[in-house]
């Protein structure tokens, strides 16, 4: 980590979170550069993190070991094609754009070591999880660099096949919204049961947070944790039975399949 030089193409929220995380982990601001077309964004990130920013992508990537492409998927093709003549063979590229395959990226960038990454929005708070896939040209040292980079905003998991990135997208990439939906529904239900909205909201949010902490800290799986808190003929069992009678697991499975299918579909559209 200590000598790694990193360039960010695009300095939006996710890039800014990664930069903040890297600086917090001890990387020197002089080792990080970024580029962004927006003068306002450049000024904001420079003031916040004390790194050097450029309007020109080619200037930002000069001498970088790792180049993080953090632009909107729709802008990816033009940005990659613009970068191509300025790349050196050893430079590792990390894409954090949703729904763009390695084949498309390499078609636009030329033959470079590439890691495709699917982070999620809790990374903005340093609580993210990112799924990573490396192409065959990525060395063991570069895998480590990619891992160190994404570890700055949460935990990292590697997948063996690129197709699994669609599944990662379905579980964790889109996943925070599923928990927001549950919190929203529990809050509304609490209000219908007579609680003031602010109280119901606080109860639902803190319960979600506490349950997640328990699941992460426990040495048993979620199914066992659920069994342990479900007393026979008690209140929890009444709720769980109601969920199961309405096909809760099947609903979740169907929703995640829809997300994975859409991820693959978007990859096809964005890769043209």
CATH class of the largest domain: Alpha Beta
| Cα radius of gyration in angstroms | 21 Å
Helix/strand order, N-terminal first = EHEHEHEHEHEEHEHHHHHH
Number of helices: 12
Tell me roughly what share of residues is in helical segments. 40-55%
SSE topology sketch:
Elements: E1 6-9, H1 13-24, E2 32-35, H2 39-49, E3 52-54, H3 57-61, E4 66-69, H4 76-83, E5 92-95, H5 102-109, E6 114-118, E7 128-134, H6 140-151, E8 154-158, H7 164-173, H8 175-192, H9 197-217, H10 222-229, H11 235-245, H12 248-270
Task: Give a short summary of the structure.
The protein is α/β, with parallel strands linked by helices and 272 residues long. It contains 12 helices and 8 strands.
Q: Please, could you describe this protein's structure?
A:
The chain is elongated. The model has no long low-confidence stretch (mean pLDDT 95). Helix 4 (76-83) crosses helix 5, helix 7 (164-173) packs across helix 12 (248-270) and helix 8 crosses helix 9. It folds into 2 domains: 6-165, NAD(P)-binding Rossmann-like Domain (Rossmann fold), CATH 3.40.50.720; 175-267, ProC C-terminal domain-like (ProC C-terminal domain-like fold), CATH 1.10.3730. Strands 3-2-1-4-5-6-7-8 form an 8-stranded mixed sheet. The chain contains 12 helices and 8 strands. With 272 residues, the protein is of the alpha/beta class.
């Amino acid at each position: 980590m200590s000598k790694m030089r990193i360039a960010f193409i695009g300095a939006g929220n996710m890039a800014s979170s990664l930069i903040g995380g890297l600086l917090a982990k001890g990387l020197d601001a002089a080792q990080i550069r970024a580029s962004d077309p927006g003068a306002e964004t450049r000024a904001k990130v420079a003031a916040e993190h004390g790194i050097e920013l450029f309007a020109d992508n080619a200037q930002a990537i000069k001498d970088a070991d790792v180049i993080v492409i953090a632009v909107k998927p729709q802008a990816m093709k033009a940005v990659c094609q613009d970068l191509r003549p300025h790349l050196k063979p050893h430079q590792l590229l990390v894409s954090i754009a949703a729904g763009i395959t390695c084949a498309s990226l390499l078609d636009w960038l030329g033959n470079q070591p590439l890691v495709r990454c699917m982070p999620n929005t809790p990374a903005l708070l340093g609580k993210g999880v990112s799924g990573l896939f490396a192409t065959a040209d990525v060395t063991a040292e570069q895998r480590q660099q990619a891992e160190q980079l994404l570890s700055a905003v949460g935990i990292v998991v590697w997948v063996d096949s690129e197709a699994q990135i669609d599944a990662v997208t379905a579980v964790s990439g889109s996943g925070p919204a599923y928990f927001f939906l549950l919190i929203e529904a529990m809050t509304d239900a609490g209000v219908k049961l007579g609680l003031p909205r602010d109280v119901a909201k606080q109860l639902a949010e803190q319960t979600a947070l506490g349950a997640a902490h328990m699941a992460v800290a426990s040495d048993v799986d979620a199914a066992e944790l659920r069994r342990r808190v479900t007393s026979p003929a008690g209140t929890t069992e009444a709720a769980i039975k109601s969920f199961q009678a309405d096909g809760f697991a099947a609903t979740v499975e169907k929703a995640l399949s829809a997300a994975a299918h859409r991820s693959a579909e978007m990859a096809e559209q964005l890769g043209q």
